[in-house]
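Workshop exercise sheet. Pairs work together: one partner reads the sequence aloud, the other fills in the structure field after running the prediction. Swap roles for the next sheet.
Pair: D.N. / O.F.
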Amino acid sequence: MLAFPLSHRGTIQMAKAVTVEVDEKGRVHIPSSIRHELKSRRFTLSVKKGRLVMDPVKPATTVRGKYMGLLKASIEEIEEAQERFVAANRR
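Structure field:
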């Protein structure tokens, strides 16, 4: 495992780099230590400058401020709609 400096909110942390493989179904195993550190089971994936970037998605229950109260659907309804959208766009 490699470690390199990572700036986060004015502090220097050591980021972990591990090598993972993509299986024949396109799945990637994320080590549990990294999953626990990120405290998330959902991520957005993007490609930036030829690199895969994976950002944790905050749950809808963490919405605060001026957006509080605008959410009319339940969390379950939102997650179901999201899953339908992802499934429809995989084709």
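Discussion prompt: Helices lie at 32-38, 75-89. What would you look at next?
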